[in-house]
Amino acid sequence: MSTPPANDPKRPRRIGSLKLLWPFVRPNRTLAFGWLLFLALSSASALVLPVAVRHMFDHGFRHSNAQAINGSFLALFVVALVMAFATAARFYCISLLGERTLAALRSKLYAHVIRLDVGFYERNRVGELTSRLGTDTEVVQALVGSGISVALRSAVMLIGATVAMVWTSPRLAGLTALVIPAVVLPILIFGRRVQKLSRASQDRLADAAAIANETLNAASAVKAYAREGIESDRYGDAIARALSTARKRIGVRSILTAVVITLFFGAITLVLWVGARDVLAGTLEEGVLAQFIFYAVYSGGSMMGLSDVWGDVLRAAGAMERIGELFAEDATIADPPNPVALPTPVHGALRFEHIEFRYPTRLDAPALHDFNLDIRPGETVALVGPSGAGKSTVFALLLRFYDPQRGRITFDGVDLRAMTLPELRGAIALVPQETVLFSGSAADNIRFGRQDASDEEVHDAARAAEANDFIQLLQDGYNAELGERGVRLSGGQRQRVAIARAILRDAPLLLLDEATSSLDAQSEAAIQQALERLEKGRTTLVIAHRLATVQRADRIVVMDGGRIIAQGTHASLLAEGGLYAELARLQFVA
Ligand SMILES: Nc1ncnc2c1ncn2[C@@H]1O[C@H](COP(=O)(O)OP(=O)(O)OP(=O)(O)O)[C@@H](O)[C@H]1O
């Protein structure tokens, strides 16, 4: 029998997925214990209250005993005080437990997801992931922070009130027991449907979040193509789908509530009617009936609480199941069990041996095919070739975003798969084509290259990357907020921030992906100088789009269709004619 895929909406949801929560609750055992203690205390005091009321009837009213009445009221107030304190303490413990669980769950989930492979991010939409981090974890928190509390309190009260009812009047209690199945049955039947619809509505919400995330992140592209209307409709449709699922869920749950209340109060009314007739017939005391009424109301309230919370439990089970699926995702690119260290100092020799590589999402077409390349320590190699030749793929494999299907890459003789990811990536500085700025100051953004760098080192790196001058001109200089909602930098300025990061990283292997965007002559000259300084003494691989870059390189590797088709110096390749001569004629704008 085959298991349906995790995202199949028809897959049965299991309450069992809630056990995944235990590791997050466990560290807060003291709070959970405190909560149980105060729960017992508050429930006990609530159960004692009706006894005080009966006492009032029996000893106060019947015998017109003022002394007894005073005593009864004092006792009543003391019991109420205990109940107030215990309830507050119980609320404190359980709410804090919920918040702590949520915080731990979110942090762990983020830490897990951020470590997953690049391939995972190609298969999943980021908006959907943030929705899981936000909405799904909140649903779970609602359960831990209040749902479980209500459930257990209701269960304790229900049991307590039931025992008390039997003790107060076995005849009335027996009558009540007869009608209970009529109340429990609909909860079970409707509950399952609510659970299914809950998960579906969470899924639809995540879909909508993914659309919003994608288009809001590319707002200028949406505007440039005047697609605001189309995108609004697309998002509107997704929200409408989420709404329609939510409406179904609310509908089913409303029916459930109405049915339960009707049946329950119908049953209680019936029982009390019988009780009232017994009092009239003189076979039951008023005090006993009063006490029984209290317990009946308690048990009614608890039933209600339970049916309400059952929906929350099912919703949380749906959410936890989705979270569980994320936790079950494993990074396929991981550290080996017995990692080999790079030699110290690192020399920077690279070797690609018979590499065959297809992207996991495109297994039909090889991105690199029998790719062989030897790079000496300290050498600067320029990769040139038409668009789609596989140049960026070489970088992706060096960074171990993917592993090749065949062949191996060695770094100072060590197979990349034999060393840890921090060891490998720590030895690489990447200057990507598109520099991503993060929220934070200019200094923070440069420090992205090396977290523990001092201010002095950050400034030196900026100076070497020709970034110091424009940063000084920003309103707050190095403290100027870059990234989201910060200062907008030009393409050339961003690139210099990226170069400053790479300088700060001071890694033995440098990967440069040249931007195709044309920089003005002055910035280009400045960047070339900065790069030349950076390349000195380290192995450099550069995806070259500019003539100046290839002229600076020790060797040029010409790629086409995932293979190396020629290599040499600028002059030798020009003399050979072929693809390189053609690209040179076109000025490398690939
Ligand atoms: N993430 C990916 N998933 C699937 N296929 C990909 C992916 N990235 C690149 N490819 C494919 O792999 C081949 C090589 O792409 P690559 O990005 O390495 O080319 P490139 O030489 O760097 O091109 P450009 O100069 O345009 O950046 C192309 O056919 C491309 O469509």
UniProtKB/TrEMBL annotation:
Pfam families linked: ABC_membrane, ABC_tran
Q: Mind naming one GO cellular-component term on file for this protein?
A: plasma membrane
Q: Which InterPro entries has this protein been placed in? A: AAA+_ATPase, ABC1_TM_dom, ABC1_TM_sf, ABC_MsbA_ATP-bd, ABC_transporter-like_ATP-bd, ABC_transporter-like_CS, P-loop_NTPase, Type_1_exporter
Occurrences of domain ABC transporter (ranges): 350-586
- Principal location class: membrane
**What's this protein's name?**
ATP-binding cassette domain-containing protein
Q: How does it sit in the membrane?
A: Multi-pass membrane protein
Listed CDD domains: ABC_6TM_bac_exporter_ABCB8_10_like, ABC_MTABC3_MDL1_MDL2
Superkingdom assignment: Bacteria
Q: Where in the cell is it found?
A: Cell membrane
Spell out the SMART domains in the cross-references: AAA
Organism placement in taxonomy: Bacteria, Pseudomonadati, Pseudomonadota, Gammaproteobacteria, Lysobacterales
What keywords does the record list, in alphabetical order? ATP-binding, Membrane, Nucleotide-binding, Transmembrane, Transmembrane helix
TM segment ranges: 70-92, 172-191, 255-276
Which one GO biological process term can you cite for this protein? oligopeptide export from mitochondrion
Gene Ontology MF: a single term: ATP binding
Domain ABC transmembrane type-1: residue ranges: 36-315
